[in-house]
Amino acid sequence: MASRRGPARVDGPREPLLADGTVVGFVTPHETRRGWRLGPIFVLPAYRRRGLALAAYEARRHLSMVAFVADGNVASMALHERAGFARWRRGNGGWHMRREARP
Question: What is the CA radius of gyration of the chain?
């Protein structure tokens, strides 16, 4: 897992998401002042809604996590709520969400 702190960069470290032995997306783990983030997250359209991003969050259940979900991104909001995130505070154009570490 990457240990760089701060916002994700375009050239930041990526971790692949695999399905059927093929890379079908990625997460970009990085630590922030408030906890770990996996964003940006990308999954090829044909492989979405299979639980790949959820599995990446579950593998990090021992970490406090934060996320930002833009208004209108219904799929991202559903993913983060399934992963145990709660709306924390309103931001410009969306919600900052957080999830406390779990055993």
Answer: 13
